[in-house]
Amino acid sequence: MSTETPAGAPAPVSPQAQDPPTDERAAERRTEPVLSVRGLEVAYPLRGRRLAGRHRHVRAVAGVDLDVHQGETLGLVGESGCGKTTLGSSIMRARPEASGSIRYRAADGRVLDALALSSADAAVYRREVRMVFQDPQSSLNPRMTLRDIVGEPLRMLLGLRGRELEARVRETMERVGLHPDHLRRYPHAFSGGQRQRVSIARALVPGPRLVVADEAVSALDTSVRSQILNLLQDLQDELGLTYLFVSHDLSVVEHVCDRVAVMYLGRIVEVAPTGELFAGPLHPYTEALISAVPIPDPRLRGTRERVRLTGEVPDPSQPPSGCPFHPRCRYATDLCATEEPAPREAAPGRTVACHHAESLDLTGILGPVASDASGVDLPTRTRREPPTRQEKDT
Ligand SMILES: Nc1ncnc2c1ncn2[C@@H]1O[C@H](COP(=O)(O)OP(=O)(O)OP(=O)(O)O)[C@@H](O)[C@H]1O
Ligand code: SF4
Ligand SMILES: [Mg+2]
Hints:
With 394 residues, the chain is an alpha/beta fold. It has two domains: 34-45 and 55-257, Rossmann fold, CATH 3.40.50.300; 263-370, no CATH class. The protein has helices spanning 15-18, 22-29, 84-91, 119-128, 136-139, 146-158, 162-175, 192-204, 222-239, 250-256, 274-279, 284-291, 334-338, 389-393, and strands at residues 35-51, 54-68, 73-77, 99-105, 111-113, 129-132, 210-214, 242-246, 259-264, 267-273, 344-347, 350-352. The chain has an eight-stranded mixed β-sheet, sandwiched between helices. It has a four-stranded antiparallel β-sheet with strand order 2-1-4-5. The longest helix has 18 residues, at 222-239. Bound molecules: adenosine-5'-triphosphate (ATP), iron/sulfur cluster (SF4) and magnesium ion (MG). Magnesium ion binds next to α3.
């Protein structure tokens, strides 16, 4: 099941020991991003489908630029098929089709290009950048015990064996709320929430710094979803983790993310601090997405206009000319049909790809959105302030 390969065995380091102290992390956050994606392209060939004698492609990720800062939770949202998983799996180096650059600042301060790693640096990257998948049922090998599932990255990436390995597995199981005595059990013996804790333990065990969580709570019952979200937040606080949190559920994103990136047809169309994005979106697609978030307070229902998106998401193998959103945009002009808007900084810390962002007066949501939009008792932790522009520039 694992694709991990043995590596030169560095001294085992616990997650806490590997993270720099808090003041150092704050200093790190003020400098460069921990992950910087530039001009990322992923095109899947469409077998058997030709146009003018050439194979057609789905341009699943179309020139994405994105920064993830140390210690933040960056949400990645958008409709099904917009390219969220392809972007996340490219960061995990699971997309050989990917081109562009994905620069990662490792714990030792070196900047690694994830798309061009030596085998030694690939092992460093696999230790420090980890993934939690949506469906623990299919991502955990049913024939492996918890000890082997959680211990495999330690064996493959850190060269641990025997008691040392088992002690680290037990420690990590406790950290994620699993009973360490359940070491010899198989995944089927656990509930969906417990299995997701196993997935988190497997991601966490080699001491990562960046975790890509792709719809990590979407497959869970509403009753356990908030427990797993709370666990992810506690782990972030304890270990100084950075998250790329992929989700289609904006009510969850609003509660757990510091900043949000909105994706449409393979492009990032808006990036903003969470509060600003929900209160005052700059891109018409963001406005439409957040207008669909349910309002929990019955007294306030009907006070907000629901922007209904017309038409289907376009076929990504034949994207519209100009702005890819123009066939569905109620603000589109002639310019929008012919010229694709490039992402630009429209306000401090805010990026948008829309010709008319400054002249549109779009509707957002003031105050927290549906805290129980999907029946989930969401975490109530106060969100940390994202880095200010001044902090990022210094
Ligand atoms: N292996 C593949 N081969 C061909 N096309 C693919 C492949 N994987 C994804 N695609 C296509 O690439 C586009 C982006 O897919 P992706 O799974 O990244 O979207 P997503 O935003 O994660 O969707 P969802 O919210 O449904 O998970 C879609 O049009 C999809 O059909
Ligand atoms: S560029 Fe035009 S079509 Fe695209 S989002 Fe802006 S207003 Fe709408
Ligand atoms: Mg997906």
